[in-house]
Amino acid sequence: MTQHTQELRKLIAQELPNLDVVLAWTHGHNSLTSTPLFITTQEDLEKLDSGPMHVQNLAAYLPSLKGRKVGIVTRGCDSRTIIELLQEKLIERKNITIFGISCSGAVNIRAVRRAVNGESVRSVQADGDSITVTTNHGTHTLRMQDVLMDKCYTCTNQTPIIHDHMVIAQTADHVPGDAPQTTLDALDSMEPGERFAFWEEHMDRCIRCYACRNACPLCVCKDSCVAQSRDPHWLDQSDTPREKLMFQAIHALHSAGRCTECGECERACPMGIPVLAMKQALNRRIKHLFDYQAGMDAQSTPPLFMFRQQEENIKERDAR
């Protein structure tokens, strides 16, 4: 157990009597996986762990716990989701206690499995800018830079933007060396026809399980989602790439100006479809048009939540 995990446990132990539950992480079925931990007792607290292997955005659980006193362990990127939930009044700040931890990147489990050729993993040890993976067939030392989640290469928040308590871990330089090409970079280099073919190919593999929607911490209209609504009837259940692409386009548009690029949609996809790139492309457009990034300021209003007669960077009125 690392020193900052011990410090985190100590801070939570002090606050636990005043809280109904604390959201954190613990090990999953093996050392390569993790699972959310709902802490209500000291015995639960002993299971807490933290580090680059714990990737879930715990803020996704906050709306369902509205009205209760909740503690949450959060990294810089996930704190943006908390801010967005506050902006949309889906949670109340007075009921949330934030235990912040610094982060130099979260590990992409799929990338690790590819790097060890799918061998059964026995143990994983993170050490600065590398991780050591022991399998049934030997030991592999991997550069952290090569196995990070896509979102980590563009992340600018190593520490939470808001927090009540803070644990500073000894972190490596953020994304050491040269970062690999992301999906969005690849899409930028394509012609429009190539991009459409790219998405058609990926959507052909989509099984419409809606894991991307269910994992999204800001997709809060699941009970009346257009994907399953018959009034209005925007989508049918036909198994075609274009119908599935239509759902992803709607999901991306509904989260435009709200998406904090936490990557839960892409991480949850069982088919490995890079759906986060759609949201990143829209966010870049929102940044250009409105000079706004989601989840950076709890006091600001998302641009698509307001109306201005004239926007500084939208010139259609001037062209009339």
Automatic annotation (TrEMBL):
One of its GO terms (molecular function) is metal ion binding. Residues 197-217, 250-279 form the 4Fe-4S ferredoxin-type domain. It comes from the Bacteria. The keyword Electron transport does not apply. Pfam families: Fer4_8. Keywords: Iron, Iron-sulfur, Metal-binding. The keyword Nucleotidyltransferase does not apply. This is 4Fe-4S ferredoxin-type domain-containing protein. It comes from Desulfovibrio psychrotolerans.
